Amino acid sequence: MAEITLINPPQTYLVEPNAQEHLGLMYLESYLKSRGVDVVYKNLANVGMDEVLSQIPESEYYGITTTILEYPEAEKLSEMLKERDNGKVLLGGGFVKSCFPYVNKDKFDGLVVGEGEKTLYHIVTDGLHDKVNVSEPILDLDSLPFPDHSKSEITGNFFIGGHKYSEGKSINLITSRGCPYDCKFCGSKKIWGGKVRYRSVDNVLKEIEQNVKNLGVTNIRFNDDNITHDLKRLKALCYGIEDIQYKYNTELNWRVSTRVVPSSKEMWKMMKDAGCKEVSFGIESYDPKVLGLLNKRASVYQNKKAIEDCSSAGIKPRQLMMINTPGEDEDTVLLNMEALIEQDNPAVSCKPFVVYPGTDIWDNPQNYHIKLRSKDFEKLNFNYFRWKKDKNGDIVQTNAIPNHINDGQTLVEMINRRERFLRFIEDIDIDALK
Question: Around Cβ 397, how many Cβ atoms within 10 Å?
Fold first, then answer.
C-alpha cells in the first residue's frame, strides 16, 4: 500500500488532455521518492470519472492537484476515495493558493497552500495535524531532484500545427518559478508572490543533458513565464544547449513562451542558433487602451517589433491573444485585424477572455469598466478553450457565455464580436475588414 498517491484529475473535456506533462506532480514525486517515501503518481487527465478508482491504488494519503477548470472533478474524486477507503485526501495546486476562499474545505481532509514538496513530506512522515497547511517558497530550486520524464507520454505536439522537427522524445521543462510582472488578468502574483526564483543554468543544462543521454530527448518546451527576462542567463543557457548538441551529435528543438520585451534580432538569432524553433508571445491585443487596462507593460509598437525581430531571425512566432477583454470595443477588433493582416502568415492562438477568481479584475471589476455576471462560483463558466470534447468524445465548439459584461455593451454584442474575430483568425481574409 502506497503512503501517498499523487493525482491529476480527469480533464477529458480537453481536446488533448495529455498534451503536456504535469511538472508540478512530477516534481512532488521526485522529491518524495528522494526522501524514501513510497509514492505513486497517476495522471488521470484522459481517464473518465467512471474509471478513475480502478486506476488509483489504496494509499494512506491522496494528493490531488487542481486548476479552476477541473475543481468539480477534484471534489467528486475526493468523495469517491473517501467512500472507498480510509486514506486522507489532500488538495493542492495553484487553484488552492489563488482561489482559497472558493475551496470547499469540508470536501477534503487537508489543504496544501503553496509549493508542496516539503509540506507533503512532513505530512506523510509526521501525520496530518492541521486542515490548512501553508508552505513557504522553496528558495534553492537547484536543491530539488529532477522530474522523472521516463514514464511520461506526451500525446500532443507543442509546435505550431503539430509540426515535428524530430521524431525523438518530447518533454516539458521549467527553469524558474514566478513572474515579476503584474498583469491584472493573471493569478501568478497570488500563486508565486510576484518574484522570480531561478534555477542555475548549470542545473538546467544538467537536466537537459541527462534526458538527451538517457531518453533520446530532442524536443523541449520551456514552461517558464519569462525565460528571456535575464539576457545574461539566457545567453549562458543557449550556449550550453549548443554544447550538448555537439557533445551528443544530436539536435534539440525547443520553444518558449515569453513577453515581447526585451527583443532584439541578435537575441533571437542567438536562440535560433541554439535550436529554438518557435516563440509564443503574450500579445493579448493590438489596442493600446486594452494593453493599458490589463497592465501589460508593453506597447503596440513593442508587440509588432518582437514579431518582426523574431521572424527575421528565422524563428516562428505564435501570438497569444484574447477577445472580449476589458476596454475592448469595435475599434479593438479592427486594430487587431489590421495588425495581423500586415504580417506574413501569422500564427495566432486566441482565447475568449475569462475573469478568474484570484485576479485583480475579479476583485475590483469596477476599475476595469466591467460588471461580473455573478460571483457564484458554481454558476459561472471558466473554460477559455474554443473547442472541447463532449460526452461522446466528439470535438465541439464551446460557445461559452462570457462571465462578465463590458460597461455600455450587451452580451450579444460581445459574443458577436468574439465570433467575428475568431472566424477571421481561422481564415485571415482582408475582406473581413469591409
Answer: 11
